[in-house]
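Key result, reporting period 2: structure in, sequence out.
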């Protein structure tokens, strides 16, 4: 897993088309303060091939996670948001611009750090 730095967020999201119309594959609770999610998206760096992307959140301070059975039904038409403010990272399904309004998302995670890895489809 590679850390996702604050300065790399926009480049990372642009590479995967901000995960618009991607697939939400899984949510794994690794510990009380660590969560991993898996998404499938098109990778512009690989000729828009579909790959999986794991995002691991450490130091989770707040989260709203849907049940695994609901993941295939989540509308990913607006993609995802990853933002960082005051040394805190936030992830949410949809388009948001602050840590405070990301809690309006049907799935969000606030954490101290984010790491990612790429896999096969």
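The corresponding designed sequence is given below.
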């Amino acid at each position: 897993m590679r850390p996702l730095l604050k300065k790399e967020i926009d480049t990372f999201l642009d590479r995967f088309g901000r995960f618009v119309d991607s697939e939400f594959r899984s949510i794994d609770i690794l510990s009380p303060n660590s969560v991993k999610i898996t998404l499938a998206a098109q990778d512009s760096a690989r000729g828009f091939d579909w790959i999986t992307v794991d995002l691991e959140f450490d130091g989770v301070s707040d989260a709203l996670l849907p049940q695994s059975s609901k993941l295939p039904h989540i509308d990913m038409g607006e993609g995802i948001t990853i933002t960082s403010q005051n040394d805190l990272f936030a992830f949410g399904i949809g388009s948001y611009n602050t840590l405070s309004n990301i809690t309006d998302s049907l799935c969000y995670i606030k954490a101290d750090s984010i790491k990612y890895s790429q896999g096969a489809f």
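The chain is about 5% helix and 45% strand. Strands lie at 2-3, 23-31, 34-43, 49-58, 62-64, 80-85, 88-93, 108-111, 113-118. This case is discussed further under Risks and Mitigation.
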